[in-house]
Write a structure and sequence with these properties.
single chain, mainly alpha, three-stranded mixed beta sheet, 8 helices, 5 strands
Length: about 210
């Protein structure tokens, strides 16, 4: 299953939060405080997260995801009128998303348990690493983006993968551009739809 991931700093920030402080801490710092099943689920999810990261542009590897993408990630995506658009990257998600979803469901249940009382060692750990960031909310939104179906005509524009190199141009036809705009609008809505100002700021990152 291929998903189309935009080169979006808001998405990149949420994606990076999944590793640190969440998956890294759970896997390396708190493993001995979890049940064997919980530790295994987190380990598989962390491995899947790393595999997905390797398929994504440099923004998803940086500590400053709002930085400009590097030239090696660069290709030019153009609309019908020749305007430059925010780039998309086809990612072969496979079972990796399912592994992340299983982990998310486990963490979400533990979060609910932590609100009711110390019923589970994972609930205690989540309470301990809580630093005011809605880690489980970030996890949910990233999964929603990764679960978006790829518009067929738009996906076809990329063949087997995004081109590499700043001189490569991918030009969208009218139908592909319509699918592109609908797809990106959905991504922005998932990530920033709860806040009017954040939504407007995020939406402005996508050229019209």
């Amino acid at each position: 299953m291929h998903v189309l991931v935009p080169d979006d700093p808001v998405l990149a920030a949420s994606f990076l939060v999944l590793e640190q402080p969440l998956l890294f801490s759970l896997h390396y710092l708190y493993r001995t405080e979890l049940t064997a099943s919980q530790a295994d689920t987190i380990g598989v999810a962390y491995e899947s997260w790393g595999q997905l990261q390797q398929m994504l542009p440099s923004r998803f590897h940086a500590q400053s995801p709002d930085a400009e993408a590097s030239e090696e990630d660069g290709y030019v995506l153009e609309g019908l009128a020749g305007q430059r658009l925010t780039r998309l990257y086809p990612v072969d998600a496979g079972l990796r998303i399912s592994n992340l979803e299983i982990c998310y469901m486990m963490l979400r249940q533990a979060q609910l348990d932590s609100w009711r009382g110390p019923l589970d060692p994972l609930a205690d750990v989540l309470r301990e690493i809580d630093d005011g960031i809605d880690l489980i909310g970030h996890f949910r939104r990233v999964l929603q983006v990764l679960r978006l179906p790829s518009p067929p005509q738009l996906l076809a524009a990329f063949g087997r993968g995004a081109p590499r190199g700043p001189v490569t141009v991918v030009s969208l036809d009218a139908e592909q551009e319509r699918e592109y705009r609908d797809h990106c609008e959905t991504v922005v809505g998932i990530l920033s739809g709860d806040d009017t100002f954040a939504y407007a700021t995020h939406r402005a990152l996508y050229p019209t």
